[in-house]
């Protein structure tokens, strides 16, 4: 072999699609390695495959990977191969097996014949004359014997063709320099390789079938999905090259174009010869921004302004709404803004799924209606996904804008890690749409549905990239956020810092300052006029729980409060109360009393205007009382609490959520009851142990019950001593991801109960 051959750089792109598997890929790689003495570089060209296969390939093989994120299939990935500098290029399907030093022979043939542009081998199970065999079970064939037989019969037999099979194309750099890229308008359909071969031939190069070189195909059929574009691609091919098809009013109906054998074939080839740049949709694949919305009409137009201002050119906005009143009067649907109506009361997760189902982009990006976005947000977030550095991007190190007081806040990195799942804002996610499907989608919830789905994608192999979002995104806090917390105090007040108005929002700040101030986020705990709250705890022989319940009470940010403990057990727990705890009152009963009666005793002793249940075995965040009181006062309600509460089961480490149907009469979980003492006076509890809370809610006494959605601030516990058994087999119970639990719902506190 000559020195010039040895010094040639060869790049081999192995095309991997839905029909591929790791076993066939290993065989393709092995026989390439075993049948050449030349240096080469492997690129894995991964098209639309299942995330599990993509993860397995990444974990098994240490090669460069290009992915078909733009969904233009073979043409796009073929062009990715051409973007790499080399002397020769091999584009080969996964599952194609080479033998008998085939690559060495191909390079030598090219070096000796400078007029050859592309070479293709003999093979099996294909449509063209290059296919010498039809194998029903190609994996069972002794193909290495074929290699030797064909080599002996056809070793010096070469035939010039008009087109070569796409499954194995060996191409010279000089030819590529003249014709450029493959035409990506063919997308993932057929005819792209015929088009490319026509252009190579018209550029003055030969297309050679090397009959004496056999490459074995391990699969029997093709991807039937590609047939869907056959007619359209055939017509497009003829529009480019066929005079009769382009000019005749009644063009011939050719099922199969004869190419150079047809007298009308190929005209004006100069205008169709070279494609110097990849198509705009490949450089900038369509991105779908999804916006679930409800009662936010005043925000939507501003959010659309941010959408139109994006420097990323190829994008669409999918808005999913409940009622026409959710939309501003001036909103007009156009070519890149699409409106879809959901059922009234659908969760945010369900709306996100509807948006994804109706999207056309290959990247999904969350576009919440009330946040601020810079003009380069989409570009910054999709770039690493398009470059295959990751599958998901999310923003952190972002600011919080408290609209009610016109304040900007930032939180420390440690606090951010506690607040945000994987330390990224769920509302800022961008991801490869291939990880979403009808079977693998957002949960039907309105809180942390984004984080839950992100973790699901990551379990399926998606890679997350965190991006500094300080000048890309500002999280707007107002009186109607779906995630409610007290900015500046949540989780760790020392982790919050008030900052000056950032320069990036100066052009838009007037919009937010001109908005009518909605209800404040939460009761101001520094206000001495806030109502007094009485927390009531009936208990009996539960020493293992009570100290923690007292600790949760002491950690409350709400200051104007008291705790009344009513104990009718034999193991009195008065010693669990410190001498300095003057706001904790302990009452010991001599005889066993029902839970309903104990609640009545506590309510009668209460000095607070508001009563909150403080069960001894539950977990409450430091902001729990604040949120309860805030809802009660803002909604002018008689009762509030949770109708979608979480429960932790220490024995199994499962976190459950109980979903009470919105269609049924109002209800909140008894452990979360918050109500006015005025209501209790008219409506005391029944003297029973189970169901006293439900009877309190559903009595004939008129009352306004308003559940709130601050579910992450309360967790009930499922254990052997529950007074009211929890039937988790009921369809209303759902297991929730424990990673979310650890970060957002109770954190490490939950596992203290094991």
Automatic annotation (TrEMBL):
Organism encoding this protein: Labilibaculum filiforme
Superkingdom to which the source organism belongs: Bacteria
Residues in Glycosyltransferase 2-like domain copies: 288-409, 535-665
Protein name listed in UniProt: Glycosyltransferase 2-like domain-containing protein
PANTHER family: GLYCOSYLTRANSFERASE (PTHR43685), GLYCOSYLTRANSFERASE 2-LIKE DOMAIN-CONTAINING PROTEIN (PTHR43685:SF2)
InterPro entries with a match to the protein in the record: Glyco_trans_2-like (IPR001173), Glycosyltransf_2 (IPR050834), Nucleotide-diphossugar_trans (IPR029044)
Pfam families, A to Z: Glycos_transf_2
